[in-house]
Amino acid sequence: MNEGNRSNIKLSQLRVLVAVADCGNFSAAALHMEMSQSAVSHAIASLEEDLGVVLLSRGRHGAHLTPVGDRITAHARKVLQLLEAIGKEANLEKGLEGGSLRIACFRSVATHILPTAISRFRHCFPNITISITENDTFPSIEQALREGYADIGFTYLPTSNEFETWEILRDDYILLLPPTTKLRNNQVTWQELAKYPLIVSSIPPCNALTRKCLSITEYPLNIAYEIREDSTIVSMVQQGLGAAILPRLAAEPVPPGVGVCSLPAHLERVIGVAILANALHSPAVYAFLDALRNTGRFAEKTAV
To answer: HTH lysR-type domain: which residues (predicted)?
Structure first.
């Protein structure tokens, strides 16, 4: 049999073959398959023609598998079993009794927001597997959503209209000061801030937000370090290397002795959860969004 004939084999033919083998004759198989007897006969004849072998011996006492028909029917049963298993896997993924959920986020969300939401979600749906990927940049989180590597992503708002988004929280930026600093109150002026070497994040859009805020002052400010890791920035402040501007969640936990002040001008980042708009999402995605809402940090749906 050549490759062309093999590609003509249909699952419906394999189902009919198995039914005839189980029932022992064409009429009983037709009744079982809710088909006409002629349709059953045609399916078997077409399969035999495609394979180039006789699968069934026909006679007054019914239809019986030939030796090669018996071997091929065994393979047909395996094919149909695999097809059923594929369907079960798909149904598990679409339901809430199994499957997986993939979340892309950044460190401060993974540390301060996700644990409570995951705990609530797992209490209700223990058989759904959750995987978390921490990303360095927000564009990489959104790209993971676009390319299907993540089901849910946490990012800055606003974002593009290719995503459906909900606001989670507004995170104020704070100023961290070295332990040797004598604080008169929890507010500093631009003039006082100009005395310190500044340590800021190098990750967009955090970096852009910080620089925009600093650009409004008439005092020359010295950005001495741009660092990727939040923990490194906090450690540098603890060692007296400068003052740092960070979102509050990114700075926590603040080490003992490090001073915490408000900035002279208010600055905040808006953190949201996003899914790809106009895409088919599993019930697990919406169930997790409900769990996130129940943590008390979920705002109304954000229009983009």
So the answer is: 9-66
